[in-house]
Amino acid sequence: MTEPRHALTTAQQSVVDQPWDARTLVTAGAGAGKTHTLVRRLEALVARQELEAHEILVLTFSRAAVRELRERIENRADAARRVRAQTFDSWATSLLRRAYPDRDWSGTTFDQRIKAATEGIEMGAVEAGEFGAPAHVLIDEVQDLVGVRREMVEVLLDRFQDQSGFTVVGDGAQAVYDFQVTDSDQRARETNYFFDWIRGSFAEDLVEIHLGDNFRARTERARVALPYGPRLRQLAAEREPAEAQAELIHRELRLLLDEAPHFGTLDDVFVLDSLRYFDGTTAILCRDNGQALTLSQTLHEAGVDHRLQRSVRDRPAPAWIAGLLASTDAADVSERRFTELIAGLDPRPDLDASVLARAVRRVAGNRRGGIELAALRLAVAEGRLPDELMPVEQTSLVVSSVHRAKGLEFDRVLVVEPVELRRPKTVAKKRIDYDPAAEARLLYVAMTRPRDDLYRLDRPNTWLVRKDRRLDRWYLGGSRSWARNGIEALGLDVCRAHPPGLRNFAADPVEIQRHLAHEVRPGDAVELSLLHRLPDVDQTPPYAIVHDGRRVGEVSEPFRHVLHLMLGRGGGRTDYNVPGRITGLRLDCVETVAGSHVATESAGLGGSGAWLVPRLSGLGRFDWCDSFDVSNTERLSS
How far is the C-alpha of 529 from the C-alpha of 623, rounded, in Å? Predict the structure, then answer.
């Protein structure tokens, strides 16, 4: 089905009509039709026969942006369907795996891979790749390019400046990822640095176009914060005047939010029903993920279905891939056979089979136009699946931090009331913790997400919900600073080394796979149950993941290490107590993981080398059981 062609504004048409070798900077306000314009830009570049699709490289910050862009492209003409579109992190990882296939990149951090990719670009890794140097680079959300990612993109554009055009798009008013730079002085310098760099580096032939119209907000209430965009883009470069300007903007935005209707409290039956039965989409937007975890727990306890927004770096592989790999012994399949196999899966993927085939071919296609299943399995194992294949649970209610919701839009938005900014008393503390510009931009982004309705919601009580900066993870504390009574679950906390049930607890792996495929739903309650009390030196004992009385997985080694550091309070102690259970967790989704063919054969799952595991989310609570209940273990194992 082809997406309807909306008339373009003069500014949008100017972006679309730029020649392939133009250097174009597009500043786009909130709701300015940016994605629609970019799709038309890509379509024009290919349809005018200026470029082949593979000559265009599209990079953006979030998977949500990649997914939206790819979906818009798929719904339009065929011309641009083979354009490469990836997040910065995904592209950097793919570049490294192609350029240096003998190195193991799985143990490196995102930032380490970005730095290595930057070095690779300088040494010719892009030209040596399958597609060679790009003829045109389109980069979205450049306001969020800070630190090593900014440096990577600058090196990319600089290296190919004599042979490539570019279209870079961003809005300084929506820059909310400066927190990734930990040094406060460096963070201040990063604000709008990329905009200054590109204007200075390409001053002679840079074409700058501003998209100022708003196509998102359909009501006056939804447009109330829009006038603050230009003021946020024009903050002073010096710290003191910038802080004073940002404090004023934040104060005025808070006053505007105070005038918005109060949505009510989450212990009110009418309020909960209005969240359950609203016909459109709703987002509850929080200052940080600690608030989001708290509100999500409250909604689960009230029986309100919703989705807790994932981090932009979470990359779960969809569950249908495990079913596909197990459904045939063939080495490769044609697109027609791929479509037949997809149609026979239970449950089937939501996306159209032809769309899936095109996406899968980008990582597992062969010269005959078919799909090599071994290459698909390897792409799962290495985390190289196209971003638009990452599963997203369809739900009308989303709970999210503002950072994770950036770039998204909803019919109705409930903004958790922000705190009043207060300048720290000491200079030292101010340099580390005080960033009014970031707070003002964050509130602006939250208040510009709705299409129709903007509400305010009371702040949840998060007194005991705290962030462990060393571990980059939220936890549930206590009245004492050293107390630990719960831990946030993250995407890689589940063991992927072997199919669940094969080791460490007695269960039928085949039955576990059936249960995960058919009996588990996103949002279901799960808990962690201690398997034994024999701690190693640098980690806690193993825990089983229990769903509806069944063990369906176990925690990963990194999770056990993190829990060890958290409970030992970083001092290397091994004499601390460990919780017998961790309750209150939820199932985010069921995902495909890939590993050894021997492992699946040993588990009775065939030789596909892929299986299902649960993916966890939520803030777990420690249950300090006094003794280990062996009888309970035997019941759960059966």
Answer: 10
